[in-house]
From TrEMBL:
Stretches for region Disordered: 482-617, 724-758
Name of the protein in question: Translocation protein SEC63 homolog
Entry-linked SMART domains: DnaJ, Sec63
Organism: Amphiprion ocellaris (Clown anemonefish)
Gene that produces this protein: SEC63
Nuclease among keywords: no
Compartments where located: Endoplasmic reticulum membrane
J domain boundaries: 104-165
Membrane-topology annotation of the record: Multi-pass membrane protein
Length: 758
């Protein structure tokens, strides 16, 4: 067996192959992912948003950053340098001589392959006279010539060359290591050992330790664990939290403490500027001695947030800190909502403590809207529009126009709107209309059912109810000067509840509320179907239409029960009349009628089964697509005059019992609504039968005055009684009788045998 030899590359040529491959593996993927090719696309995008969002703070900051940033230039320079190194190494490798070539004795003797023996001898004689050492030739060259001659003339050498590629037979296998020999040289051993120790015993542990220490301090949403624990403590301590208390808890987050977050800063000038802002703001609970509300970082963050909501001017140094605090606040408020939901779930499952009230969670959502728009709670939503000031609101709320909300402004005729906003001028008016037209208008359709049940419309005690909510987003510009029926907003909740219980057909409502007339049409169609099917005794299952929306009563369970009662009565009457007619007919006619009736029953039942099967398959496919699809959270940029960062339109969707101030389903954060989104809200039905009044609520996390509410009526029936014994485990009576009969037969046979023996 041939031996093995390991050798380092003394000349360093092999190392260039390794280095070229290593640099290529870094440069090529880095160019694909890091090359700033979106710089021009970002400029184009900002240019397209300029007409609507040109006055927004985040737009001006983004535009300034894109123009002044040198990061794309540095990225390009680094990548170009990497490519230069890669091409230089590739050129170096291409110029290296091949050290390992296939041995060919014909090339050594300068002969063509297949030369005759006489030609080989003749050429060998000529080369020997020329390169023999006695004649003054090179000894190494002569040895190569002699070896090639032997490979072509000696039979054993020729076989070794053909089989092993070497006339001398198999040699030792050589493995080259792509490292220069000086690395393993004894003179450089201390230097190499020092580099290895520094890399693997100092740098690598420090990097891994830093990453691990940072990862254990933050949650999955990049919120400090200590901040989450702080929120949980105060939400447990104060279940019913007003807006002032909520702002104090928010600004006590450890993200604003320089000891926990290096991005937060405490400046020497804070001792002068912060007290001045406190005097301008008024009562903000400065004398509160409860920690951490009394700490300097918490007080500073609270003052900056309240100054932002009041749209007060601050100094340049404080403005930078204010932008940092405001930028962090929406994510912190979302964490507070998550904590409130966790406490609610714990209270529902375990009990023993008070869960946060619904008003606390909703105040978190309202405060998010206020911070994004830079508005106090008592201010008009019209101040979200450009060029609107406090003194201008008196024109809007006058007796002639009575415009208090964005929806009121949308519903005006263009002539009245121009007349009311004549103080703006033509150019400013066009800008206001462009901004208002970009605001979202959401229509919300609900469908209530119990999935994976035989009767999906029959809600029983303890069953899992699924409310499928279909959200459709349009622009306010599509709704100008249109009128149709409405969905009540949260500000009109009491009136909406009364309208839902009473007659709503006479009230003429506005476009943004978008109440459809699907409920009345559905009820009429159900009545028609029932009257048509009275002659057939087969039960027909009523299904809820896809167009059920707010304002119409959710009558899934009610309609099912009523339909069953009417069908039972119809079947009884029909059966009596059929019997009377059957007595008059002949037996053959009765048989034909019964066959036709059974055929229609089978067809109807098969049709119902097919519809249920198709609905179930569609539901399963929809769930699978939702699990497989990873949608982008980039929806539509929010128009915000005072928020320092680009914000996307997101929404909260949940079901609540507003009478008891409790959550029925946990808030679902809708972050992918571009045009249409379908959301399933699940909750367990109450354990007691009866009628329940819930509300499906949609809240924006970016805009004031665009929240929606829809009443949701739930009629809970008793659950079906479960059989004590499952049929498949019951032993049929016939089998028991057969066994007893066999035993008795056996006894009789034995008695007969005894008698015969006697």
């Amino acid at each position: 067996m041939a031996g093995q030899q390991f050798q380092y590359d003394d000349s360093g040529n092999t190392f260039f192959y390794f280095l070229t491959s290593f640099v290529g593996l870094i440069v090529i993927p880095a160019t694909y992912y890091l090359w700033p090719r979106d710089q021009n696309a970002e400029q184009i995008r900002l240019k397209s948003l300029r007409r609507v969002h040109g006055r927004c703070l985040w737009y001006r900051l983004r535009l300034m950053k894109s123009q002044q940033s040198i990061v794309p230039t540095l990225k390009k320079a680094a990548l170009l340098f990497g490519w230069a190194v890669f091409l230089l190494l590739a050129y170096k490798v291409s110029k290296l001589e091949r050290e390992y070539q296939e041995y060919n004795p014909y090339e050594v003797l300068n002969l063509d392959p297949g030369a005759s023996l006489s030609e080989i001898k003749k050429q060998y004689r000529i080369l020997s006279l020329k390169f023999h050492p006695d004649k003054g030739g090179d000894e190494a060259t002569f040895m190569r010539i002699a070896k090639a001659y032997a490979a072509l003339t000696n039979e054993q050498s020729r076989q070794n060359w053909l089989i092993h590629g070497n006339p001398d037979g198999p040699g030792a296998t050589s493995f080259g290591i792509a490292l220069p020999a000086w690395i393993v040289d004894q003179k450089n051993s201390m230097l190499v050992l020092l580099v290895y120790g520094l890399a693997f015993m100092v740098i690598l542990p420090v990097v891994v330790g830093t990453w691990w220490y940072r990862s254990i301090r933050y949650s999955g949403d990049q919120i400090l664990i200590n901040t989450t624990q702080l929120f949980m403590h105060f939400m447990y301590k104060t279940p019913n939290m007003n807006m002032k208390r909520l702002a104090m808890v928010l600004t006590a987050a450890f993200e604003f403490d320089p000891r926990s977050n290096k991005e937060a800063t405490i400046r020497p000038t804070d001792n002068i500027e912060v007290p001045q802002l406190i005097r301008e703001l008024g009562n903000i609970n400065v004398k509160k001695k409860e920690p951490p509300f009394c700490y300097p970082y918490s007080l500073k963050a609270r003052v900056l947030v309240l100054a932002h909501l009041a749209r007060m001017d601050v100094s340049e140094e404080l403005e930078e800190d204010q932008r940092f605090v405001v930028r962090k606040s929406p994510a912190l408020l979302q964490e507070m909502i998550n904590v409130g939901c966790q406490l609610t779930m714990m209270a529902n499952s375990r009990g023993g403590f008070h869960a946060p009230r619904l008003v606390t969670i909703e105040n978190c959502m309202k405060l998010t809207q206020m911070i994004v728009q830079g508005l106090q709670e008592s201010k008009s939503p019209l101040l979200q529009l450009p060029h609107f000031e406090e003194e201008h609101l008196r024109y809007c709320i006058s007796k002639k126009y009575k415009v208090r909300t964005l929806q009121d402004l949308v519903s005006l005729k263009d002539s009245d709107r121009r007349s009311m906003l004549r103080f703006l001028g033509e150019e400013k008016y066009d800008e206001v209309m462009a901004v208002l037209g970009s605001f979202p208008h959401i229509t919300m359709d609900t469908k209530l059912q119990v999935l994976d049940d035989e009767d999906s419309n029959n809600i029983t005690a303890g069953s899992i109810v699924t409310v499928t909510v279909t959200l459709t987003r349009k622009r306010m510009a599509d709704m100008f000067e249109k009128e149709q029926e409405s969905t009540p907003c949260l500000g009109e909740e009491a009136a909406a509840t009364e309208d839902a219980q009473g007659d709503t057909s006479k009230t003429k409502t506005k476009v943004w509320q978008n109440k459809s007339k699907g409920a009345k049409k559905t009820a009429k169609s159900k009545k028609k179907k029932l009257t048509k099917k009275k002659a057939t005794p087969a039960p027909a299952k009523t299904k809820q239409a896809n167009g059920n929306v707010a304002g119409n009563e959710v009558v899934a369970a009610t309609s099912t029960a009523a339909a069953k009662e009417e069908e039972d009565e119809a079947s009884d009457k029909g059966s009596e009349s059929d019997e009377g007619e059957a007595n008059k007919d002949s037996p053959s006619e009765r048989d034909e009628d019964s066959d036709k009736q059974s055929d229609t029953e089978v067809d109807e039942m098969a049709g119902d089964d097919e519809e249920e099967w198709e609905a179930l398959q569609q539901s399963i496919q929809r769930r699978e697509r939702a699990l497989l699809e990873t949608k982008s959270k980039v929806t539509h940029p929010v128009y915000s005059l005072y928020f320092p960062e680009e914000k996307q339109e997101w929404w909260w969707l949940y079901i609540a019992d507003r009478r008891d101030q409790t959550l029925v389903s946990m808030p679902y954060h809708v972050c992918t609504l571009k045009d249409t989104e379908e959301v399933e809200l699940k909750f367990p039905a109450p354990s007691k039968t009866g009628n329940y009044q819930y509300s499906v609520i949609l809240r924006s996390d970016s805009y004031l005055g665009l929240d929606q509410i829809k009443p949701l009526k739930l009629e809970v029936h008793e659950a079906k009684a479960m059989l004590d014994n499952h049929p498949q485990w019951d032993i049929p009576d016939t089998e028991e009788e057969d066994e007893e009969q066999e035993d008795s037969d056996g006894i009789e046979e034995s008695e007969d045998d005894d008698e015969d023996n006697d």
